[in-house]
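pasting input
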Amino acid sequence: MSGGLLGQVAAVPLFASLLTEPVSVAHYLVVGAILFAAGIVCMAVKRNALGVLMGIELVLNGANVNFVAFASPYLQGEGARGLGIDGQVIALFVILLAAAEAAVALAITLNFYNNHATVDIDRADDLKG
Amino acid sequence: MAEFLINSAGLPEWLAWTITAVVAAVLILNVIAGGALVFIWAERKIAARIQDRLGPTRTGGRFGWLQSLADGIKLLAKEDLMPEGADGMLFRLAPYVSFCASFCAFIALPFAFDFVGQRLNVGVFFVVAVLGLEVFGVILAGYASASKWSLFGAMREAAQVVSYEVPLGMCVVVPVMLAGSMDLVTIAEKQAGWFTNWYLFHDPFTFVIFWVYVTCAVASVNRAPFDLAEAESELVAGFHTEYSGLRWSYFFMAEYGSMFLVSALAAVLFMGGWNGPIPVAKLLGLSAGTGDTAGYFVRLLGMANLLGKATLGVLVMMWVRWTLPRLRIDQVMTTCLKYCTPLAAAMFAGVMVWQLALPGGIVRGLSRPAGEVREGWLEGPGGKAASRPAADAAQKVAEVAR
Amino acid sequence: MSGILATFGAVTLPLAALNWHSFFFVLFAAVACACAIAVVLADNVVRMALYLVLSLGATAGLFFLAGAEFVGAMQLMIYVGGTLVLLVFGVMLTAQAPFVSIKTTTGDRVLAGVVGAALLAVLLQSAFSVPAWRQPAAGTVAAPAATPVGMALLGVRVDEPAAGSPQGAVRSGYLLPFEIVSVHLLVVLVGAAYLARAKKRKTPRAIEVAASVEPPASVAEHAAVGRGAGRATSVLSGGRS
């Protein structure tokens, strides 16, 4: 019991400092990294074709978080020059291309489903010699 | 208000901000919930009149105006059923997703000069985007209910909403282009003055595109004649077949909330927002900018204006609902893709050309001069100096275009 | 007991010094990360879609907090409102009992988990490696409007004029990429429509049946409109065609 409480007490200052200190670019990078890694694992683990597609969306989103963080004037320290508008514009392009990619991937998935009556990508082995 | 609490009442800053936020949230919530009560009663009465009936007459006096409250109490007391094969978590979550989306969109909606939850400089897109999220609640409800009627309803809703977002986006972009801003407050301010300044009467193209907006708005909030998601003649009740009690009423409140929202958005984008057809306050010599009682009165007047316009929009939707028969799903898709989208695109191009040729609006004498509309548009964060090259470049582009 | 009191004290004291920006950052970041991990862990494909929606919505909140309001609104509108609805639509078209949750073997999970953890470790290490990135913000900056972004897309950089030339020469913006993306989207639209179109597979037997049974008017009309849209259309129309 005391151990649990001690752990709690030790964790509270860290959490509190997270809440009282201003946010920096590194905070955003951590979020981006977690989204990116989750997306990679999702792509590797899922066997449903749509699950893989969701993994790709997560990866693109993780990259977007980084672009926006580097573009943001709120997060830069003194004297630092971020990407400025460039970061936001690139993030916009990523969003647009992700929409395009999702449309094509969905069309392929539906075609696959119509031909094979399944969305399990392990069964998509027609080209195996 | 937060400043007042900090300075006068002596509250700590964090508490003052929290109280301010909670008050704003409760006010918006009241607009939705109170609006739903009134509109449900109004819908019953209007439907009855159109069908040559009387509608509710007993609850709460001669006009039955307590009917929706009685309905609400009945719904609270009703048993909350869940089908056996349902996905419990999603089934419980779905109504709240719908309601939250409808509620969140109100945050950026200005009710009067500075009666706005949070002024965003991309307000228009925020409202349209968040409103689009409501469809997730419907889709989840349809899937989680484990009923084929619900699933069909949800599928139709998904197809319909995604399709109608295209022409709706184009319609919304037109006032943005005319005002040179995506901020709803700025867009409404640009239409101040007499009703000839409204974007509805800006030029023939905006007049046409307003009606395209009305069509798409009705479709995007799932009202008849586009209510394929709950077509009771074929799908029992569509996506909310399996819902009862309080959860069902959340769907209902979300529906009325978003009806009110798209009407208010139409009022802000095309009909001058809180600026009435006749600038009463200005004629009386009052101004919204002042912080005294007069300014407050002007704002209340503006809010009454906006609420009136939005209510008018909702009543028109009810009128349409009880007049037109429901379309088939392929007709819904045809309306969107073959008529609304090309029409919206053509009108969009027309407004662009008009803006280049006759920037002043249709009635030159009554509207503001051409130069004033675009003033300050090209200023970046660097201010005037930084914007010089940009302004020059824009001028060159305009010359080439001529 | 004293430990609990200390915990409470530590929590309540900084409330006055609470940085609301950081508070909302933590809130949105927690939702985004938790839901991203939930996407990986969930088996049911519809729940995965829900978690993905929540994760991307929270990320849009992060964009708003970072001052990129236009990107945030676009994320909500295109990503969450468009792409994900499309995705859920695909999920529902293919959501038949055996495919709702396809299990992965434990070995695959462990392997992917190890790879993911390694990747995360590398990314986190690099995120904290540059001191300038850990420097917190210098204070409030003037709120950037969406106008510079729009002007940059039109090929005019409002935010930073070219150095040394007061007039005329403007730093090039993103007009060409913008045009390329728009053509790309058009091509994708056509391509996706072509791909998703179900091939008409009419066996002689089916043609015979179709010829012998005169369809009611509404069904024939419907078939003419959504010709060959196959499975998707039949689900849409409540299985009438």
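fyi Residues 1-11, 213-241 of chain C have pLDDT under 50 and may be disordered.
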